[in-house]
Amino acid sequence: MNEITPLLAPLVALRRDIHARPELGFAEHGTAARIAKVLRETGLEVHEGIGGTGVVGVLRAGHGPRTLGLRADMDALPIEERTGLAWQSTVPGCFHGCGHDGHVAMLLGAAQVLARDPQFSGTVHFIFQPAEEGLGGARAMIEDGLFERFDCERVYALHNWPALPAGTIATRPGPIMGAADKFAIEIVGRGGHAALPHDTPDTILAAASLVQQLNTVIGRDVPPSANAVLSVTEIHGGHAHNVLPASVRVGGTVRSFDPAVQDRIEERMRQILRGIEASFEVTARFDYDRYYPATINDPAAAHDALTIAASVGEALLAREPAATSEDFSFMLQQRPGAYLWLGQGRGENPPPLHNPHYDFNDDVMETGIRLHVALARHWLAD
């Protein structure tokens, strides 16, 4: 029997119980309390309320000066679960559709293994972060003094990845997740009778032209060698067949991996809007929010992670980054480190993340625990 086997059944039970009682970003009070309780029972020094509901467990061994941060996110999504599982969410409109319940369980398991048999000399900070899903919980923890209070010379995070075979571990140097920007545009005219379009700026027509032009930005203004996405996802305007609406709202998202490309896309959007204003005699109000930067791995940390992953399971160099975003990016702006994917795919066409039929694959929990433990023992080797 290995050091992890006795922990798996209790950790799976904990994971499923957290799954049944999900909490949204900055409201993870019950989840945070359970994490703190397990960490204390494991013998760690525990700090709560960091960046709102964040928890940090501190484990010291030997006299080594090195420090490491291992991070797990713990918030759920505002989605109605449709798995029908025995541990399905009991909270209407809220469920762990991204596997953060599994991330919590794996990091707690690593804390238990390392507390019982450290085999390292230094300090590990187990970081349980709130509000990853669009609310910037990592930034909140940093602004609350995370790295001043808990110094981390290097920091790692692990996320389950349904697109990879179960147990496979992948990462890459440089960009691994995209910068996430969101935009909201309001096209304002006067409103008037649909039978008299010559008297009223047509905001619907202006919005239609805007959407067409925005969809040329990536193909015509971004170098072919760069990866970027611009998607219009919302159009709201009008309420009657015989009325030209006074305003139309258009919204969407931009994903990119290079700040220079990010700048170019935003500026090109502004240029297009100036043209729309002149062409249709409307006014355009533009709100562009760069809410998550690109997640960029430190090359040395990513190389180390791949080497260590190969001792735990099958390690892969990720061929390209994902356009989805991750607020671990804020931590990587502060400290060198890397973000890793843990394959959890099973069968053909497993439900993707953020899907109402998704559930974390408990079969990969042991691999995730082993990876966390190996990262700590490598970086803090005596």
From TrEMBL:
Pfam families: M20_dimer, Peptidase_M20. One of its GO terms (biological process) is diaminopimelate biosynthetic process. This is Hydrolase. It comes from the Bacteria. Its cofactor is Mn(2+). Residues 183-274 form the Peptidase M20 dimerisation domain. It comes from Novosphingobium colocasiae. The keyword Cytoplasm does not apply.
